């Protein structure tokens, strides 16, 4: 996100809440020491914590792997659980509320909190604390309540899954909400279905009847990268799925009629991608329809 000028409460916030001093390959797990590398210049600029976001986002209830999550504004939120580390490979990916993920910023994810929300995270193993801006959905595993950027994890002294306490800072969360609503001219939060890492995505731009065609936006050995691409394009293309097939994680939009397949291909090419086309499961020329 853009480094905007901090709101007046930020110095007090940081002074009051300053700090002392994974498991597998899916999104939100600790993968390498690179996940905790930091840029001193980026960490010295904390204006983004309270800067207006592209939108204030709550979202409707949604289901991932059979579990339903109900986003809600909760200024009394205070939970204890495990936290993981967002891979640095997610850098540059758009978050659910339209910000750009930067592992050098103090960022975190939540399954249900509004985006953005300001929280205080405490490492219950060593007492370290960090002020974190929650701006993305996740992690979609029952074993963790939050995933943190590399910078936040390093400040907390995390080297892997860690037990933490996550508490909403009500005054600062209200301030960043109001700033976002004012900057975007909105009067109520966005409540469309969220762009989360889920079996399916819903967006209003590219729609159409069912049919024999499927468009593939990309294929990856890394599930993180497939999820990132699905998250990136889901604001412009409906019904994006990540499927595990033949050892690859494939980002697909399926059950399309010819007109919708053409529109989807055009949209993805506009994003700089080179989509492929399947007709009843067989590869065909993407320009053949």
Task: Describe this structure as you would to a colleague.
It is built from six helices and 13 strands. By secondary structure, the protein is α+β, with helices and mostly antiparallel strands. The protein folds into two domains: 175 residues, RlpA-like domain (Barwin-like endoglucanases), CATH 2.40.40; 72 residues, Sporulation related repeat (Alpha-Beta Plaits, 2-Layer Sandwich). The strands form three sheets. Strands 4-6-5-8-3-7 form a six-stranded mixed beta sheet. Strands 10-11-9-12-13 form a five-stranded antiparallel beta sheet, with helices on one face. A hairpin with a 2-residue loop joins strand 10 and strand 11.
What are its keywords?
single chain, alpha+beta, Alpha-Beta Plaits, Barwin-like endoglucanases, six-stranded mixed sheet, 289 residues, disordered N terminus
Condensed summary:
With 289 residues, the chain is of the alpha+beta class. It contains six helices and 13 strands. It has a six-stranded mixed β-sheet with strand order 4-6-5-8-3-7. It has a five-stranded antiparallel β-sheet with strand order 10-11-9-12-13, covered by helices on one side.
